[in-house]
Amino acid sequence: MEIIEKISEILNRCAGIIAGTILVFMILLTMSNIVLRRVWVPIRGTYEIMGFAGAVITALAMGFTQKRREHIHVDILVSRFPRSVKRAVFAVNNGLCTLFFLVAAWFVCRRGITLLETGEVSETLRMVYYPFAFVVAFGCFLLAAMLFIDLLKLFFQKDFK
Amino acid sequence: QAKKVRLNYANFPPAPTFPCVQMERWKTEIEKRTDGAVGINTFPGGTLLGAKDMMDGVINGQADIGCICMAYQPGRFTVTNATSLPLEIPDAKTGSLVLLDLYNKYQPKAFDKVKVLTMFVTAPANIMSKAPVTELSDLKGLDLRASGGAAQILKSWGANQVGMPMSDTPEALQKGVVKGLFSSLEVMKDLKFAEICKYITITDTVIYPFAVIMNKNAWAKLPDDVKQVMDGMIEEQAAWTGEYMDRHVSDAIAWSKKEHQVEVITLSPEKKAEWHAPLAPITENWIKTAEEKGLPGDQIIKDIKYLIVKRTAK
Amino acid sequence: MSLALVGILGIAILMLLLFVFGMPVSFAMALVGFGGFSYILNVNAGLNMVSQEFWSVFSNYGLTVIPLFVFMGQIAFYSGVNERLYQAAYKWVGHIRGGIAMATIMACGAFAAICGSNTATAATMTTVAFPQMSNFRYKPMLSCGSIACGSTLGVVIPPSVVLIIIGLSTEQSIARLFYGGIGAGLLLCLLMLLTVSVVCRLNPEWGPPGPKSSFRERIRSLSGAIEMLILFFLIMTGLYAGYFTPSEAGGAGAFFAVVISLVQRTLSWENFKKAVMDTLRVSCMVIMLIAGAMILGKFLTITRIPFNMASWVADLNVPGPVVLAVIFGMYAIGGAIMDALALLLITIPIFFPVASQMGCDPIWFAVLITVVTTLGAVTPPVGATTYVVAGMAKESTLNEVFKGVTFFLPAYLICIVLLMVFPWLITFLPGLL
Ligand code: NA
Ligand code: NA
């Protein structure tokens, strides 16, 4: 259990550093494009790159966003349930969502494979962009992993809140 | 009486645009000609599938029928996308029939997993601008909104291709973030660009190819007489759509001239040759790429040029 | 089972997952959307739809404004700019009951004039305003309600993505639509201010008044607001002079915010890192909400409920005003269960001809349905703005936010009625063009 926690911790930290760097890069790119368009020529493909960069930061953030329970949920009723019911509800939720995002990760991955196989490239820069689809798949997988770890904790840790 | 077949037809641009107009026409005709044996539900505006999701969406059965713009997925439809090279297709009707002929001749692998119901093209892209563009030098450093497919052409002319969503374009034009746009001319009226862009320069360089495709399983399940009706409409629909597009564009030009005093600039034959000279490497590059993929690039270009002449003569 | 029944059942299951099981909202929407879509077509189609939506929402250029604007807000927060801004505002309007809530709504309106997305507005304004309102001992319910509802002004006051989409799909001049939105937006803003005033009159402890400041104190306080004013000025100038598009304004704003706080030496490296990480988490949360709503929307689309409802209304054989009332009612309900943009894309092609046939002014009709669908952004179960505010204001529950929003519902209704009775409120400005 501790080893799994450790691995997820490291993965999420790396994801955070990469995503953060890309966020800063996005700001600089937008600003450079605004300035360069004025004084010289616009940066080719800004529009495309911003979209791909946005996909990467959202995907990489999926793991640690879930870890901090940032996704809003309605607890009007749940908070009033007795402990055992709460645990059962939590298990069902996490089980369903783990499964869902695991399969979603697999299908986003397949989408990347299709992009790879059909040789599709981006419109302006004509560069292959399937790797970004794999990053999104990885993000879904991270999220599924976080959900699964929470599920494991429910069964193996006594002090579940 | 046989059970009625229901088919879902997805399209990506907003309902009033020409790909959706041809969709509604096809729906009406098919429902009529099959005596109501087929009913078609249309989903315009990307409500069921977006532009880039269309091909795989139809293959995977999210919709039975879908309309794709091949230029949005460069690299995937190499053969048919050759029609969007600067080969001087004069109008949408000619272009649509040329595209269909080309498809029929080469049966590209990209369409292996679907049934093609028709193909058509946009009218040629032209320059709409706030300041007149009469010389190549007027284009130097000019920021024009265009889709990625036109990037190489604008670059060869020295203009800057600016990619942005169509929804950002009216404001960007108004405020001067871009100085014009490069696309087919119906947008002058449909999206009211004539309010801002007072000049049109006719270049007739590039068209965008579209295809209407159907899921193979859904096709296989259709009764034979329905299949016959749909097969019989392939070329008719291509011609109808091309004609509609061409009429729509000339209406839009007339409207822009009348309502907003838009000036149309045409290039003399000498000037046209001058404008087309720098574009030659684009086609050469395409041939090289196609041949790397094991396609007869040179022959495809020759065929397109021959088909343009043949289809224009008719 | 008929498709309509499947759709209704889907919504019922969504309610169950949300309110009884307490499943995160974005996951529940995605799950129900996936389940319903798969039930109607097949699992393979459902899974492909889900993977497509994740990919296309995540990589959507238009949505990159969310992380960029959120980052701008986070920088303002961590460098203390927003605190100094609110201190200044407190000196000016703090002595009025609910004055800070009113100032927040106006700030939302000002922000709306920059940003076309109401989720981006909500995420930014919650960071900027919520902690400050708590400082001044405002009731969280009122603070959250003001921010959530104020943020919806972003869709009515131009630039607005929703108005652009209507313009593109009905082939109307977007400039005229934008001018139409100004009148409606100002009226709605005014009614929200009135709401705060009335609510605080009835419950004085919700927005407690502070001491009255002297004129000199007020003038001196302005120096604290200077950074935010410069930031706002830079963005507005850039936008209106045509240096950048609304989509780029987020990036420019974030850049200026960092530069200003570096010049002022108010931002430590530690806080900068915190701002980055908070931004990533908040935008991930917001974008997941949008992805969930899109997936759910695909399911409702394939049931054809919105199409059939729209055709049913269009064929109603009743007097014009009744048809209009039914249309607006449908948008209010539709907005509650579906993403506003998806709903508009489906229904506009059907309703628009109906409205034109009845002789409605197209600009008036378009702006009015924008106001009506705006309401949908704050109502459950699919009310993105409310969820964003609740997700970010850690000290308050979703329950409180929804309660807070409820106080503002009359403002929306009165606004809609006024716009119907006095169409010139919308059509006056575009008429000048
Ligand atoms: Na706005
Ligand atoms: Na809603």
From TrEMBL, chain A:
One of its GO terms (cellular component) is plasma membrane. Residues 26-155 form the Tripartite ATP-independent periplasmic transporters DctQ component domain. It is a multi-pass membrane protein. The keyword Cell membrane applies. It is found in: Cell inner membrane. The keyword Transport applies. One of its GO terms (biological process) is C4-dicarboxylate transport. Belongs to the TRAP transporter small permease family. This is TRAP transporter small permease. It comes from Desulfobacter latus.
Automatic annotation (TrEMBL), chain C:
One of its GO terms (molecular function) is transmembrane transporter activity. This is TRAP transporter large permease. It holds the Pfam family DctM. NCBIfam families: dctM. It is a multi-pass membrane protein. It is found in: Cell inner membrane. The lineage of its organism: Bacteria, Pseudomonadati, Thermodesulfobacteriota, Desulfobacteria, Desulfobacterales. Keywords: Cell inner membrane, Cell membrane, Membrane, Transmembrane, Transmembrane helix. Its main location: membrane. Signal peptide: none annotated. The chain crosses the membrane at residues 54-78, 142-166, 178-200, 221-243, 249-267, 279-302, 322-351, 363-389, 409-432. The keyword Transmembrane helix applies. PANTHER family: C4-DICARBOXYLATE TRAP TRANSPORTER LARGE PERMEASE PROTEIN DCTM (PTHR33362:SF5), SIALIC ACID TRAP TRANSPORTER PERMEASE PROTEIN SIAT-RELATED (PTHR33362). One of its GO terms (cellular component) is plasma membrane. The keyword Glycoprotein does not apply. Residues 13-425 form the TRAP C4-dicarboxylate transport system permease DctM subunit domain.
